[in-house]
Write a structure and sequence with these properties.
The longest helix is centred in the N-terminal third of the chain and has 18 residues. The radius of gyration is 16 Å and the shape is globular. It has about 160 residues and is of the alpha/beta class. The two termini are about 20 Å apart. Helix content is about 40%, strand content about 10%. α2 runs parallel beside α3 and α5 crosses α6.
């Protein structure tokens, strides 16, 4: 969380590079995918479609609901014995466009998978915490666990 130009996107992308490199050295199939929600017009469908196409480039572009795409993503991760860190940059766009349901579904998809590995983790990038105020309490509670507040930096720090 932080204002424009505080390094949120760059930090998360560097984290993604470093953690996937470390995972590879440990023979863990960990993938980092960075999606800009604004570029996806605040659509969970488009976000999930882009995510799945990183694994299966020829995946059909039509014929699925967002909920079906989420289930398909989990199936793909299981079949590939893969783990995914999905970064949702400019999350405000998704929240403004579709409300609580997409984040609720993403953050709770693994609750029914008691004996299965937890394959999906989220990093959510926002500018202001008040964008989460409109979310229902159960969705908000799953997202507000580990918050990093980015401070503005000076030209010399850059």
């Amino acid at each position: 969380m932080g204002k424009i130009g505080t390094g949120k996107t760059v930090l998360s992308q560097h984290f993604g590079l470093n953690i996937t490199k470390e995972a590879k050295q440990r023979n863990i199939n960990l993938n980092y995918i960075h999606i800009n929600c604004r570029e996806c017009k605040g659509s969970l469908f488009m976000i999930l479609q882009r995510t799945i196409m990183k694994f299966i480039p020829n995946f059909p572009r039509r014929g699925y609901s967002a909920e079906e795409l989420l289930q398909a993503l989990m199936q793909i991760l299981d079949e590939k014995d893969a783990y995914l860190i999905l970064t949702l940059d400019e999350l405000e766009s998704l929240v403004q466009n579709e409300g609580s349901d997409p984040l609720y579904n993403l953050s709770r998809i693994q609750e029914d998978r008691l004996d299965a590995p937890k394959r999906l983790s989220l990093i959510c990038i926002i500018r202001h915490p008040d964008c989460l105020d409109g979310l229902d309490p159960s969705t908000r509670s799953t997202l507000q666990r580990n918050i990093i507040q980015m401070q503005e930096y000076s030209e010399s720090q850059l």
